[in-house]
Amino acid sequence: ELLSGSLEDVKLLLLSVVYMRGEWEDIFDEKDTREHNFHAKDNTKQVNMMYLNTGLSYVESSNLESQVLSLPYKDSPLSFLVFLPKASQTVDGLISSLSSDNIKEAVDSMTIRDVELRLPKFKIEKEIDLIPMLKELGAEEVFTTQADMSGFTNEDLYVNKALQKVILEVDEKGTTAAATTAIDAAFTSLRYPQKFTADHPFVYMIYDRVSAMPLFVGVMMDPTM
């Protein structure tokens, strides 16, 4: 589906393929999933909202003006991070503030809290033309007839397509992405759990706690789209 039309004349093609299937360390119970309002940019929609009440890594980031939550994957150094803007912040403002330092500071500041989490189920599917981004990074010549491919072929070749298809699905069992480090912290016992209701646009990422690097980043504007 990524490539339409005949490949008869194609001699060099650049594709990016990534696949990940991650199971939550704490699986959501499907019986607790309910319809819930999601306040998108222009209107309010009914979405399937998952529910979980358990101990999770959590912090309120003053730099990002957001609640930040980490959902660990089972037997993995990866986590699914959710950055939920507070009333004083917009999702655009949050995106502008998401430097590597601010992300790392938020993750390093997390403590285990009793959290009452509501998170929408969603699936995104998008095809991305990588050529504009690669050109911005300085890879210009490879996309022209002046491309020097002498390192691996004597033919006059250049790249005229560079495509990536992204699929990300989040449900009660975990995350499927095409394109849990143990935390030694004391459990903070609260009389009331910390509420985390992702009912408005938020930023999410698949984050590697070992390398302190985001592997996959997205913005959820509308779970029904």
Automatic annotation (TrEMBL):
The keyword Transmembrane helix is assigned to this record: no
Keywords: Protease inhibitor, Serine protease inhibitor
Pfam families listed in its UniProt record: Serpin (PF00079)
Molecular function (Gene Ontology), one example: serine-type endopeptidase inhibitor activity
Entry GO terms, CC: extracellular space
Superkingdom of origin: Eukaryota
Annotated family: Belongs to the serpin family.
Name of the protein described by the UniProt record: Serpin domain-containing protein
Species this protein is from: Argulus foliaceus
